[in-house]
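Recall from the previous lesson that a structure prediction takes nothing but the amino acid sequence as input. Here we apply that procedure to Membrane-bound metallopeptidase from Paramagnetospirillum caucaseum. The sequence below is the only information supplied.
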Amino acid sequence: MCEQCHPALAEAAPTPRHRARLWEIDNQWHCTIIGTCLSLGELRGVASKLGVQMRSAKPTAYEIHTSMIHLASRERLVGKTLNKLLDRKHAAAINRAKPLAGEETLGAWWEECLGKGEVAAACWAVMSHPDCTDSLRSRIFGDIHMLSHQVGAAARADLRSIHQLERDKADLEAKVARQQDRLKAEIGRRNTEIRELRQLLDQEAAESRRLAHAAESALNMDRLHHEVGELRHLLEVETAFRQVAEDEARRLQAQARDRDAENDRLHRELRDMRDELAASETRLAATLAPAETAGDGLGQCDEECARLDLCGRCILFVGGRNQHLPHFRRLVEEAGGTFTHHDGGFEESMGRLHSLFGRADAVLFPVDSVSHGAHDEVKRLCRRWEKPFVPVRRSGLGAFIRALSTVAGQ
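The prediction returns the following tokens.
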């Protein structure tokens, strides 16, 4: 019986409210917490500080991410260090969430932070809150997961922006080149005028010195001095104009450099996304269209796809999304294989996974849609049964057909 159902028991033994530590939270949420609330640089720093051994000398970002998730609930020191780092980094959000009570209030505050883009801080503040439930954590996981899908749409917009920036850059460079040519010509002309004016000034000075010795030159001294003053003023005006022109040229050059830097930054951000946004998904979707529209079952599949032959192999697929499974089954069967599936322990027993390994010829699983526990268990069973182990980088159709090509090649 809970304390809320028995008031006398609640008064006799009150339960203290404290925030959950990272290792006290179910490890199924560790991927979301560590991947969202901590940067890769911070994870590298923790791994270096604690001397965490990685599988490779130069671990990738994914290896660091998965290693820290794996150790967070198994190594107390790693879990405590990550927990302290999360608390210190997101202390302001934790203090804001502290007076909140109840799942509904926490959920409303999460929605508010999500709308403001304060995802990382609010994620840890809510996930570790005493009143946070598994349903709320699942809701937060879903919201963060959907944000990753929005990256693709944003990437396409950024790509269009890059193309526009490249066109603007070319126009700006041409404009700068024309202005530089005009400025150079104008500066050359004015430099010539300045030299001539200086020569004239020197001649006038020499003439004034020569005429100083003559009595009749006294009447012309004021006029000569006035002319010299005007010439000096003209020289100053021309010099100032040249300085302004040079400053304008430097400003335009700096603007062009800024555009180049922005262009480079956008290219770096989209470098990894371009492969994921390739047209393979559209082609594969057309390939897996219903039989009455696809004709021979291969649709617009290219020659390499058409040659795919599994030679009767049994393909075991662990994890993934239910809406993709009919398409995966059809791909395998059209390639001459048989398809079996296990959801990775979400609803089906892990004991059934052991029984499926006996008749599987190769095991595939999507790394972005399977639990870490199922991932570790599949790898262990593959080593035990000596089965080919083929990770599928994404849960989409394009990644699955590439994995099938790998199995067929083996």
